[in-house]
Amino acid sequence: MAYLAPKDYSKDPALLEAAARKMAGDLDLDWMQKIRERAAFRPGNPHRGLTLADINGGSYGPDSVPELVRHNFSMAPRGAILPKGLPSLGYTLNRKSEVWADAALALFEEGKSRHWAPARDIPWHALDGADPASREERALRQLCSLLSGVGLVCADIAARAVYRLNIEFHEIKYLLCMQMLDGARIAEATRKRALYGAGSLGVDSQALGELLKMVADSDSYPQSSAGLNLHLASLLQSFARHLEWATDNAADAMIWTRVAQDASRFLSYGVDHLRTLLRARPGEAEELNQHLDLLDNGLVGALGATEVIEPLIVLSGGAQPVARLYETLAAELFSRCESAGLGPRRARSPLCDFLKLLPGSS
Predict the structure, then answer these.
(1) How far is CA 138 from the centre of its chain?
(2) Contact criterion met (CB below 8 Å) for 223 and 230
(3) At a CB cut-off of 8 Å and minimum separation 6, what does 324 contact?
(4) What's the predicted TM-score (pTM) here?
(5) Domain architecture of the chain: domains with CATH
(6) Is residue 78 a contact partner of residue 170, using CB atoms and an 8 Å limit?
(7) In sequence order, what are the residues at sequence separation of 6 or more whose Cβ sits closer than 8 angstroms to the Cβ of residue 274?
């Protein structure tokens, strides 16, 4: 059943009578004089405009938020006066260290400034000379089909978290909304690339689907963040950089440059978020590492799947460039995990045994 308000306001004589008096001009504005703190915020850099960082001070800033929020479960913005009786929206993510990252403010601002629209910004006409029946075109359409699904799952995972997040952490809510847009845009751009001209979608991958499900079914927000913002974002960024290297036309170059750029914001939040979490709660590192062991196993399955590795070999001109791609992806993922405070992961990760099977592996 939907939520029921504590009273039937349409039949509340006191409320209706008071509203009628006010509409007739009988205003009592004394209550508006209650101000927790008067602000005087201005843009720190006029060329950049008024940013979230510029308006974060005193009771309006995140430093005023306790580690565990107990005072606000409503829709009231941080720093507002909270009268009694506000309804609870049932937030379940109320611990600051569980979600916070100082980088979120700048990442949100950057995401707005680097917005791109696949419909208009990609020079689609640059694809008109491509042979739709060539192995290269079919291989790229196959990878685009898979990456479109990855983009939508990224948006889904962010969407699952945003409504659970206490409104006191509105900067993280903003960033999660930006991740939803970024994921949807990646899905849009790659789907359009697959279908442009005489295009078609390819074959889905069970192994990649298993990795996506592992991330989506994570037990906690930190585990979900690690899977989304480290594993899936590392895969997206590495593949996009590689495909940009392998392309010979302006349309694909722009698509993959922009996808890699969007993925970098996921990565920045993921590293800073886990670093913040583990500084406050270092005892959770091993549990997170165990979860990452499972995700690394899922990543092995995805990278080894026929639907992924064969198109990459076709587009790369052989297996050696793909081996280098996989080695770079793993090295960057391990480096990000260590930077986040999870310690060295190479010795325990199933990715390493997989990499040893690749031709020319070091």
Answers:
(1) 29
(2) no
(3) none
(4) 0.94
(5) 100-109+123-357 (1.20.1260.10)
(6) yes
(7) 222, 225, 226, 230, 288, 340, 341, 342
Torsion of CA 212, 214, 215, 219, to 10 degrees: 160
pLDDT means per 10 residues, the chain with 362 residues, are: 84 93 93 86 93 94 96 95 94 97 97 95 95 96 98 97 97 98 98 95 98 97 97 98 97 98 98 97 97 98 98 97 97 98 96 89 60
Distance CA 301, CA 339 (A): 25
Q: Look-up: residue for tokens 């898979």?
A: 146
pLDDT at 348: 95
Reduced to 3 states (helix: H, G, I; strand: E, B; else coil), residue 296 is helix
Q: How much is the pLDDT for 37?
A: 85
Take residue 164 and report the two structure tokens written for it: 């659970």
Kindly give the interhelix angle for 319-339 and 233-246, rounded to the nearest 10 degrees. Answer: 140
- CB neighbour class for 318 (10 Å; exposed up to 12, middle 13-18, buried from 19): exposed
Q: Is 213 within 8 Å of 151 (Cβ atoms)?
A: no
Question: Are the C-beta atoms of 286 and 355 separated by less than 8 Å?
Answer: no
Q: Do the beta carbons of residue 250 and residue 126 sit within 8 Å?
A: yes
Backbone angles phi, psi at 93, to 5 degrees: -105, 90
